[in-house]
Amino acid sequence: MQSENLLKASAFMSNSSPGPASPSTNIVPTKPQHGKLAQRFPSLQKKRGIAAVVLVVLLIIGGGLAGLAALPRHGGGGNAEGSGSGGSGDGSSISNDAFFYGQSPPVYPSPNMTGAGLWAEAFTKAKALVGAMTLDEKIMLTSGTSSKTSCPGFIAPIPRLNFTGLCLADAGQGVRGTDFVSSWPAGIHVGASWNKALAHQRGLGMGGEFRTKGVNVLLGPVVGPVGRVVLSGRNWEGFSVDPYLAGKIVFETVQAVQSVGVMASTKHFIGNEQETNRVPSGGIEAVSSNIDDKTLHELYLWPFMDAVKAGTGGIMCSYQRLNNSYGCSNSKALNGLLKTELGFEGFVVTDWGAQHAGVDTALAGLDMAMPTGDTFWGSHLATAIKNGSVPQSRLDDMASRILASYYKSSQDRGYPSPGVGMASDLTKAHTVVDARNSSFRSTLLDGAVEGHVLVKNIRNALPLKSPKMLSIFGYSARNSDVNTPGGIISSWLWGAQSNDIMELLTGFGGSGKVGKTSISFNGTLIAGGGSGAPSQSYVSAPFDAIAQQAYDDGTALFWDLTSAKPFANPNSEACLVFGNAWATEGQDRPGMHDDYTDGLIKHIANQCNNTIVVLHNAGIRLVDQFIDHPNVTAVLFAHLPGELSGRALTSILYGKSNPSGRLPYTIARNETDYPVLGPDLPQGQFLKFPQSNFSEGTLLDYRHFDAKNITPRYEFGFGLSYTTFNYSNLAIEKANTTSSGNSTALFAEYPSGAVREGGPTDLWDVLFRVSADITNVGNADGAEVAQLYVGIPGSDSVRQLRGFEKPFINATETATVRFELTRRDLSVWDTNAQKWKLGSGKYNITVGRSSRDLPLVGEVVI
Ligand code: BGC
User: Fold this and answer.
1) Residue whose CA lies nearest to ligand 1 atom number 2
2) Residues with Cβ within 6 A of ligand 1?
3) Quick one: pLDDT band at residue 739, thresholds 50, 70, 90?
4) 595 is annotated as an active-site residue
5) The whole model's pTM is what?
6) Could you report the per-residue pLDDT of 402-420, keeping only the tens digit for each?
7) Exactly one of 170, 351, 500, 762 is catalytic; which is it?
8) Ligand 1 test: best mutation among 170, 210, 422, most atoms within 8 Å of CB?
9) Rounded to 5 degrees, what are φ and ψ at 597?
10) Buried b (16+ CB within 10 A) or exposed e, 308-346
11) pLDDT (mean) for 747-758
12) Where are the alpha helices (DSSP H) in 101-230?
């Protein structure tokens, strides 16, 4: 139903789904195309001067154009059906956004928060405070402003009402851009650990550091990108391409972070799957992720459901367009999916500079504009409220959602002052706020250890046994030459110590530049680049940790970390070769392997019959160039372990830890085996409006390999241990009562529970309980990741992950693992009913070591 105000407002809409727009009548100014860099780095102009800006802008413009020519093509774009005017009709380039109107369904009005469930008390307090606020004060709450801190986002205090303001800071792997904090394992590393309890511990430790620093809102965790585009630059920030695995880990992370009083802002909602053309630039709009309703629900929305279920205080809307409507003005995504279907009670914040309209975004469900609201909100929002374009109730709801999240986290009581530990310039003398907490040292180490995945280990190459001589090769073994804060254009601030800061910054403006690198040659990787990079203040490099161990063992150590064709001493008992695969925000990766590193590995393997390869990979990295070389005896995917990288690796190499990581993605034999390799580019009619059609539906990663019968090199869920586990005794039990005690509704076709955070409450009713025994039949103690997959009738996928547990089992002992299958786990999205549907039929239940090694087989019938 359209309200009167909405009808008035439609005259001012510039760029969204409903109705024809008349940009010329816009009272809200259109965003200047070249204001992007200033928006992204608000302090850049002020502090470092215009010269630096000009330099970067020049690079961006040059690099962006060149990048278009250089990037790989994926045949996805180009066949979107337009419903409005704007196309030329003769096949030439579409020039007007009106062509796309209607592709994303309009959902209005924006639902007000209800204060249901756990939000009741916070909602009451928020409403009282909002009631005492003036129009200007409410507007201040909704828009970022500058501050004397290094918080990338800041909401001004309102002293009259004892509101102290809010600091918003990156990101998912530790506080960025400050000192005296830890560098936690990155998202991909946590995903590879398949360890829910450890993910929770990490959330507690990391959240505590945000709190001590006076960060009110942690800008993470990441569950979008999901990882559709294998070469996407930000996949490493998320946990897994599998929505169930990502969902379980994000749930733990959000709960843990928020349990110490920090608001999480789960991002980027939704369909943010490529970096190329992620933002509008040079007259080209941001790419549109064109996703059908079923795929949207079953894949991309799934982990966000878990984050909302966990109570995430914030959700960050994304840069790109969803079905041709910008992420932060998409009423279907924000009002519809998030605030109606998922019953989200918190606030929606823009990605930085992702607001492209004023009235539109307000009506579509946006609550906070970052890093500034000046362009579209601020005084413009006041005008829109006064003339009725935006209802007063919408502004009150924005303010209530922000304040309720703040109260729900008890940030009104004894919370450190916003940004207290976020010095604006680390190169100048400043007060030290040490946020590290020594009781989380073991979590940092366990987290680093458990994300390593051993995929090859022949002739007992690992663990090492006090070798007499060891040789080390490759650029990723040692620390970078420099690790020190410098201004906004410093490698340190963006995690580019081992790479090239100018290359990284180029990506912030558009589609990347020619010659972007696959690897970081200047040292080891503990994280990827961009806003997800943590602030390194200590790094245990693999080389240093191994050297320490070599000293203890009396091992002779030789190394050549720079040559492409180094000499390997023939007396080496083992040769360790270190490579990496680099990825950063702002641009997509140029490839899935690189000839330099592959050549180096083969060169060493030709000389050394015990060549052990360690790859720090910020994304999927292919290994077929060398994997079958008879002298390559072991291969470890070391992912992005955070600051205790070397210490963790050494513990695995020498058998003090038993490897227990499993691949959170599939490693193919060839690039072409993946359904979507690289980003979509502007092409054909869509030169100004790049299109990315998600035509593969839900068939990503192992779903695709299974459905198309493609043999991977290493399948999803795979990983070796120093011991062996046997599986037996599968037992399946049908539940007979719902959580509410209502047994008749348990197997009903559709859920009927009230919508609370995450969706209808009965989606979480347990329908089946499954158990299995796992026996450690080897000689080493260790942890096993038991995985449960379900074949859902009527689904495109052969099987889908629907349970995993990670018991630690001593040699010769047996553990019983238990899984619960909920209504949600067994349902598919019914596009007609617009509900999750529990179909009738036979569900295959398999349990085992990986997605392709499933010794226990059973079924249930509904
Ligand atoms: C990123 C976000 C980040 C924000 C603030 C944006 O460029 O996409 O993930 O939180 O910047 O730094």
Assistant:
1) 351
2) 152, 170-171, 219, 267, 351-352, 531
3) low
4) no
5) 0.91
6) 999 999 999 999 999 999 9
7) 351
8) 170
9) -70, -45
10) bbbbbbbbbbbbbbbbbbbbbbbbbbbbbbbbbbbbbbb
11) 96
12) 120-131, 135-141, 187-193, 196-212
